[in-house]
Amino acid sequence: MSKNRITTPIVISALLLSTACSGNTVKHSTDTLSLNNCAIQETIPGAKATGAFLTINKSDDSALSLVSAKAPTVTNHVEIHEMKMKDGTMVMQQIKEYPLKKGANIFKKGGYHIMLMDMKKSIKVGEKHKLALSFSDGTSKSCIATVKSVKELTPKGMKHMKHMKPMKPMKKDMKHMKS
Question: Quick one: pLDDT at residue 78?
Answer without folding.
Answer: 98
